[in-house]
Amino acid sequence: MYAVSQIRTFASIFVPPIFFISALASYFHAVYRIKIDKELLLLLLETNSGEASEFITSKVLLFGIIAILFALGIGYLLKKSTGKLHKKLLIIVLLFAVPATIFLGKFKKTPVVQQIRPAVATKYVFPYCVFNGLGQVTGQYIKNLFHDDIIDSSKLDSVALKQEYPLEVITIVGESARADRFQINGYYRETTPLLNKEKNLVNFGAITSFSAYTRLSVPAMITPATLANPETTMTSYLGLFKKHGFKTTWLSANDRLDSHDTPTTNAIGDIDQKIFRNKFCRVSYNKFYDEMLIAPLKNVLESYSGNQAIAIHTRGSHARYNARYTNKFAKFTPDNYGEDMNLVKVNNAYDNTILATDAFIESIIDLVRDKNAVIIYSSDHGESLGEDGRFAHGNPDIIEQRRVPFFVWYSDTYKKLHPSIVDALKKQQGTELSHDVFFPWVVNLGGILLLNSSQPVLLQPDSLQAQQTPQ
């Protein structure tokens, strides 16, 4: 930075915007302890105005105005500055800084180094962490240009069990829901009063998510990715269901970003219908609640009498928490937190989102209770709620951001028709699981058996004596 500042024309143009971006990034880092990296920058590029507006407060605007004034002042001073580059000083600094950074990187797991390294390593320090993130974003963009198209999941070798009655397979992808805030997982507050009463609920407690970001976790969840190989190389399980005669639907609480594909929309694949919020609802982003998904879901269920596979992508517990539920779910109060991130109010608001999620899932259960149906729920990632001063998500090294709920509900008719699948499901309770099981278990619960699969399936191809549909 010292060397760059000596090239006055260059510095006066590029340093001010770098300062401004770094200032804003440091603000959110200071308030929420959000990690500034490639994934956050990609997330900012893919977000919509409604989501962004929930974080644009009067304090942020004031901070931004001050940052702009400082940036303009810095640009003016750099342009008018005089002086020569002191090469000796620069060489001395580099001779110290480069070996020190390499040394700290090599011994990064040492306790003492773990405390020192964040203060000097370029991946943590402003503005270098922004440079590092922008460099990685550029690298990812170049990689995507030469990346092969993802494979349709229908190419997987599979067979399907013949269904005696039409089967409804519904997957619900939650948002920012952490497992330890669900009463069914032992939480002391009554956050899941309705799910507590469901006798056909098989609960797996807390499992490990693929990541702490939606843009990474959701595509991995719905495709055959694993924790060991999280890259999305194949489309979602909906393609596999379509192959075996199911009508396939993606129903989302989020908007489609014009004609551009995010990692999630790209991973959905070629299915029968994709229904995004801005296609079925005129309510603004900030006034949308997951319960508004029930009406279009009901229409989808009633529009077809055969087998259906439906994936629902929810808003769940995404910050801002007290904007995720209506007044009838404001059970834990006060919940009107602001940028002070008052812990009591933040946690009350978050627990109310879980209460709203409980009612939302119960509403879906009620739609298919008397049918041959199975519902699978898990969240994309967890959330920090003030632990060590951290809030929100985005750091895969933080445990509460990676431990998510996972459970399956089945109807009485489904249990009667598929007792072997239900038994296999119950045998997995108490085991340590991750999102690795989400894709293979969903297709298994839909009566599809994967051939030559190395994934953690519920059912092996030879485990059931049943009539199969053509591949």
UniProtKB/TrEMBL annotation:
The keyword Transmembrane helix applies. It comes from the Bacteria. PANTHER family: INNER MEMBRANE PROTEIN, PHOSPHOETHANOLAMINE TRANSFERASE EPTC. This is Phosphoethanolamine transferase. The chain crosses the membrane at residues 12-32, 52-77, 89-107. One of its GO terms (molecular function) is transferase activity. Residues 8-108 form the Phosphoethanolamine transferase N-terminal domain. Keywords: Cell inner membrane, Cell membrane, Membrane, Transferase, Transmembrane, Transmembrane helix. Residues 169-447 form the Sulfatase N-terminal domain. SUPFAM superfamilies: Alkaline phosphatase-like (SSF53649). Its EC number is 2.7.-.-. InterPro entries: Alkaline_phosphatase_core_sf, EptA-like_N, PEA_transf_C, PEA_transferase, Sulfatase_N. It is found in: Cell inner membrane. Its main location: membrane. It is a multi-pass membrane protein. It comes from Halodesulfovibrio aestuarii.
